[in-house]
Amino acid sequence: MTATVGYLAIILAALASVGLVVQGLRGLGNGDRARAQHLQWPVYGLVGGATLAMIALEVGILTDDFSIEYIANNSATTTPFIFKVASAWAALEGSIVLWGLVLAAFVYTVYRGFARRSEPDRLGAGALAVMGIVSLYFFVLMATVSNPFSVCVEPASIGCLEGTHWPWADSLAALEGRGPNPLLQNHILMAVHPPMLYFGYVGMTVPFAFAMSALMLGAGGTEWLLRTRTWTLIAWGFLTAGIVLGGLWSYEVLGWGGYWAWDPVENASFMPWLIATAFLHSAVVQARRGMLQAWNFVLVIATFALTILGTFLTRSGVITSVHSFTQSPIGPALLWFLMVVLVASFGLFAARAHVVASSPRLDSLASREGVFLLNNLLLTVFAFVVLTGTLYPMFVEAFSGAQVGVGRPFFDRMAVPLSFGLLLAMGLGPVTPYRSAKSEVLWKRIRNPLRVALGVAALAVLLGYRTPWLVAFILAAVFVISVIVRQLYVTARTVSEKREISLPSAALRTMRNDPGYWGGQISHLGVALLALGIAFSANLTVEADITLTPGDTESVAGFDLTYVAPFTRQEPTRFVTGAQIEVARNGKVVSELEPRLNQYPTSTQSIATPEVDASWSGDLYVSLKSIDRQQVTLGVFWFPLIWLVWVGGFIAAAAVLWSRLVKKRSDEVSVEAEVSRDG
Amino acid sequence: MDSRTRTTVGWVVTVLLAGVVIVGMVVGDSAPQDRVEALGSSIKCPVCQGEAIGDSPSETARAMMEIVEEKVAAGESDPQIVAYFTARYGDGILLDPPVAGRTLLVWLLPVLAVAGGIWMILSRKRKPVSAGVDRD
Q: What is the ipTM metric for this complex?
């Protein structure tokens, strides 16, 4: 019953998508039809179908309906409530349902903006049609090769061995479900990380759809860019938060002592982030100076294509990693869709190249535009490096059968200088005037921040931190931060004198007057902190494997770790083996840690849960590598100032809220405000 | 202080600080990583999902790490140790692709991308008709 309802909801959403495409295209062609009443029913149908499908899936999971194959294989009666809810998107078929729901939500917000307009809105109608094509694709996927509502015809004692496509077929329920993948039910972040990432991924459909609609209309100007600014920023914020949460999850759960491994699937989320970031910046150049019009089309197409590529890499099983749980026919389907997207969108772009006005040229490299171009160069090269590094082994294997490895050392070597260049551009950009910068003006604005940065870097050197890249990153990050602080101070001082108000309220006023620009600066601040955190953890992490028998003490990074005793305990969903570790510093006990290995009944591999003693100076991170009757082997890490990574990442993402919530009257105005005042 | 002295003092301070930073970076060695760790992060664990042997808790990876430790202790060079593993598991276990042979291209492509990007930017630049606009 639940399965039938869910499946029919998917069919409804697919049909509504067809309606949206047809009506949207008619609206695009004829202004009289580009009105809310013509698109209303397809939009409601899509939103209703997508919502109902998700509700059906959740109801099935929460009522332990193991006649549905997906639920029998990904949930269990013993699964805790929150992980049951999350298991709706913890595996392949369900995650596509979430994708569809998020897309429907974005269609709805675009439609709301469309319906509010008093004039016929051909651009909006076309954009809704493009979104309809994308949603049609995903709902057809759900109705065919990735059906979350297949019912079970051959149950096993735990889980389901074989399902059948049609949900109304006679089904046999499994007695007990298999439960989520152990890795995915080990931490609460699993409930949050995928939706965040999906909001980011799917949100990029909006600027893409408007760009395609603009090309179809032959309107190459800035309207599509300005109207989608909010969505692009919000999607970017979610993508950023999703990536940072993924890093935090990896740190808290995987126990290898890191947050980023250049795993292909991490790369898959990082590539669209890089290009979307480039797009956010080049959009400012177009809004302000009319340059880079064609380039913005390229970037927005690339961002969207990379989100599809990311889904393909994650969900097709072409790459082995913790994220690709399954081999499934969805791989080829996604690859085809990617090809269609690339050919159709670049084809349309080429066919309409003449409407994309030839942009004014760059006056001088030493200008804000010049720095934006540097930023775009570095970000796109970065994305290109990640793309080649990720796909290269696959291509070599496909063409020559030979296996080559491209891993962390390669990416690190490339990422370090590129990130350093980006930090420098981030410091220089906001203080460089448009058109052409006079060196005296520039110097006046950067000399004090530069001195502060040199001072802090010199202090680091004197304190003994002399690894060249570490010093360079401290220098660059402090420079970025002090440029922002200086600019706020200088502007606020003028405001406070003119209006005779205190400096803090003048600063707040400054930031509220230009939320788009200052949101960007807050984001830069977050990225600078993030970069510092990464530089510290990459260069100063202390790592040791120690083996102890009960009563033994060994010291790592100034901490004395004593193995007190092993323990075991049976929890509802897992069997836990752990070691009690007492941590002392200078003879004083500072904490008791219990790193554990969790054994899930459905998996042979045990999953480690590291334990972390976090403080402002850093994290003492202890993970259990092995344990037997006599002894225990621990991986012990000291991560100095690692909180900078999380805090910086969240500031960078949350800054979007500042740009969008502290709001000017209309989008157009905030985009104008996006561009900096010169201070 | 009059403004000239202030400027001079500013410059001296800037240069001094820059001097400290530069000297510090020159004398500092890059990443004081020990060889076992470096090798451990550049060899892929053949039975794991894309993890380096230094990161993976699996038994194979730990056994391989022990071999690395023994060989480093026995005084073998990095290339020798790497060759030992590639002879057994193939080139696929190298996480750090050599700048030669099949993986040369993965190093060259980014360089080409940078060159292409710079060329594109320069070609977008207005020809220096008026010298006054172009100075920095």
A: 0.85
